[in-house]
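Morning. Coffee machine broken again, so started the prediction first thing and wrote up yesterday's gels while waiting. Chain of 111 residues, entered below exactly as on the submission form.
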Amino acid sequence: VAPMPWIPEVSVEALAKLLDGPSDAWPLLLDVRRPDEHRYVALPGSLLIPLKELERRVGELHAHRGREVVVYCHHGIRSRKGAGILLAAGFSARSLKGGIHDWARVIDHTM
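Came back before lunch.
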């Protein structure tokens, strides 16, 4: 198995700081988990495109070109793959390090 190329990441603390700022500067939050996971818990305002559908659905994101995309999943594995797909398609994308698991553990204990 070939090693995964370096994928930029953002910490949950840095994302929380971004989301504290003006909403017009927020990144697009892209959830690449399954629909049942997204229904259970999700970051506010996030868009769901499951990882296995992302390559064929990347065109749905063209309206967001030029805007940073933060890709997230449960622990940060699928989101690294998703961010890689978006980077290859010319988007500015980062993976949420530790995923929604770390978000709930560090930022929002109500999740």
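The radius of gyration is 13 Å. Going to sketch it on the whiteboard this afternoon.
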